[in-house]
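Data deposition worksheet. Section B asks for the primary sequence of the deposited chain exactly as it was used as input, without tags or linkers unless they were present during the calculation. Section C holds the resulting structure in C-alpha cell form. Section D is free text for depositor observations; keep each observation to a single sentence. Incomplete worksheets are returned to the depositor.
Section A, Depositor: J.P.
Section B:
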Amino acid sequence: MTHTEERSHSRRDHSSELDSESIKQLLEDGELETLRWEDDDISLRSAASNSRLPYDKLTAQELVHFPDASDSKASTNLYLFVRNKILQLWLLEPNVELTSEDAIEQLPIPFNSDRRFVRRIHGFLQRYGFINYGNFHRLASALVLTSKRKRVIIIGAGAAGIAAMKQLHYFGFDVVVLEGRKRLGGRVHTYHQKDSSVVADLGAMVVTGINGNPIVTMMRQTQCTPVRISPECPIYDEYGKLVDQRKDELVAEAFKKIGDTAAYIAHTLGVTEVNGNKLSVADAYNNILDMLELRMQRRRLKYWQIYEEILEKMKQVQNEITLYKKSAVYLAEKLKSSDGSIPLTLDSDSRLEMDILRRCYKRDLGEAIKRYDATRERFRNLETTLRNLKKQEPSEVYMNQRDRRLLDFHFANLEYVSGGTLDRLSLQHFDQEDEFQFTGSHMAIRDGYGDFLTRLVTSDVASMIKQNAVVESIKYNEKGVEVQYKTDDSICTIDGDVCLCTIPLGVLKRSVMEASDAPKFEPPLPENTIKAIIEMGFGNFNKVVLIFSRPFWDVTQNYFGHLNHSRSSRGEMFMFTAVSKAPVLIAMMAGEAANLEAPNEVIVRKAMNVLANIFGSACPKGVSLQFFFLLHNSQRLSQPVEAVITRWHKDPFACGAYAYIPCGSRGDLCDILAEPIRAQAADGTYSGEERIFFAGEHTSGRYPASVQVQLLWIISYYFCIIEEKSISMR
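Section C:
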C-alpha cells in the first residue's frame, strides 16, 4: 500500500453513512459543529485559522470565484465544510502533495458526491497558495495551464524569488532565476562562523507570530528547528544600571497610550494634516507629548492655586486664633481683677452692675476659649489638608529626562519595526498592516533563515538559479521580454514570456533615477509606477554581531535594552538580542543611527563599552579579534572573538532594509507597485500584454516594512504575483 493510499484508506474508514436528506437538513440548520462524527470542529476551525481564512464565512475573494456557494445556507455550509476539510488534510501532512482526487477520497460521504465542486475548491486553494506550497513530495505530474509552456524570468533569488520559483515550477512554468549575488537569500542572510556551528542572521531573523503563518508549515517541511523567543526585555540605562521594572511598565504604558491617541486622531477623528501639511508619526507623537505636558502644567497651576488658597485660609485662621487668644487673655485679666467680694459700701444698683459685668466676662471668656479651640481645630485641619496636598504634588514635567530616555527606547523600537524614522513615517498609513499581523509566539530558526531558504531550494529547482548574474536591462514588448545580464566574464541575454521582478525597492529607486549600476527598463516604466517607486520610503536598519567564546549574559533572556544619552542617538545599539544559547549578541541599529558612518573599530568599541557598563567584569576584554565585516576587508583588533557589521544601505543589491509609507504619500503605493506592467502599444500607451510583474515586501500594503518570505501566492492569468507574508527583519 502506498503512502497516499494508506492516508486515504485511514480517512475512508471514518466516513459516515448518513443519508443525503440528513446531511441536507444539518447543513440547512447551519450546525457545522454537529459534523463531529468525522472531524472535530476545533480541528476544522484551527485549519481555517492557520490558513488565514474565516472558519464560518466566505472571503470576498471566495465569493467572486464561488457565487453559487452563497445561493443558500446549505450551499454556503457545504462549501465551508469542504474548504476547511481540504485545508485540514493539507496541514496534517504538508510533506505530501494533496491532489484533488486524494481530497475527494478523504471527504466523508456524501460531501464528495459533487466531484467537480470539490475540484473547484481544491483548485482555488491551490492556485492561491493555501495548499501545496513549499517543499513537498509531488504525486501528480506538473500542471499544464497552456498549450505552450511559458517561460518566466525571475530577477532576484531572495525570499520572494525563491518562493515564486518553486510555485511557478509546480504550476508547470519554465523558470529561470537571475541572482546578482554569489549567494542566495537577498536580505535573508545568515553568517556562519568558520569551523564552528555558530550562526547569526544579518537580515531576517524572527518569525513574527506563528498563528496562521505559512512559515511554520514550511519549517516542518524543511525540518528546521524553531526557537521560541521570550518577549521579556529588561532595560539598562546609559550607565549600565537596570531600569526599575515598575518605571519601565509605566513608561511603556504611556507609550502605548500615546500611540492609541495618535491612531484615534488619525483614524477616528480623521485628522491627518494641519494647515495643509500632512502629519508624520513624529508630528503626532510630539504634539501629543506637548499636550500632555500642557495638561501637566495646568494640573500644577491648579495645584498651586489650591495650595495658595489653603495658605490664605491658614493665614486668616491664624489671625482669628491670635484675635481670640488676645480676647481670652483680656477677658481673663478682667475677670481676675473683678473676682472677689463686692464692697458693701456700694449701693444695690452698683453691686448688681458689677455682678452682671463679672458674669459677662466669664461668659465672654468661655465663648472666646470655645472659638479659640474651634479655630485651632480648623487650623490643624488645614495643616492636614496641606500635608496631604503636598503628597499629591504633580511632577514638574510630564516626563523628566530619565523617563524621556526610556520613552526614546520605545520610539527607537518603533523605528526599528517600521523601517523609517518617525519624522518620515505617515501617521495615516504607517500602521495599516496592524490588523493583518500574525498572532502568537515569536520564533527564530536555530540554524538561521539562510539555512531555511537554502533548504527550500531543492534539487529539482536548484539548476534554475544563475548566481553572479547582474541584470543590466529589462526589455519588454508585445512579443515578450528580453533580460540582459552580465557575469564575471561575459554579457548574456535571455528571452521569456514575462519577467517577475523581485528587485528591492532601493534598487528600483536607483533604476528610475537612471543610475548606471541599476537595471534599466526599456521602455521606461509607466509614469504612475515610477512616481510610486519614488514616493515610497525605503528605510535602513543594521546590526552589529558580536561573537564571543562563551555567553556572559543570561541565556534565558532573548532581549535586553539599552538607553542612549540623546534622542538623536536613541536607535544606536538600543537593543541586544540573543536568540539562542550560542555565544552571539546582536546589537540593533535603528533610525538615524542605522546610517553607519563611523569606522568599524569605533562601532565595536562602543558596543563593548555598553556591554562593559552592563555586565562589568564578566564582559571579556583584551581577546584577539578577527573582524569579518560585510562588504569590508578583514582587520585585526581586540575584544570579542569575531564581529560582523552590516551596512544594508551600502549593499548595491539592496540599498536599504525595508519599505514604509512616508509622510505625505498615498496609502495605496504598495497596490500601485504590485500592478503588472503591460507592453507599450503602437500609440505609446501601456495597453498591451502584461509582461512585467513585481513582488517583494514593498508590494504588500498588508505587510510593509517586512521581508516576508512571500508564501501566499496569487496567480494572475498564467502568472504568479507574490504577496509578502511571514518573515520580518526583526
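Section D:
Residues 518 and 564 are 37 Å apart (CA to CA).
The radius of gyration is 37 Å.
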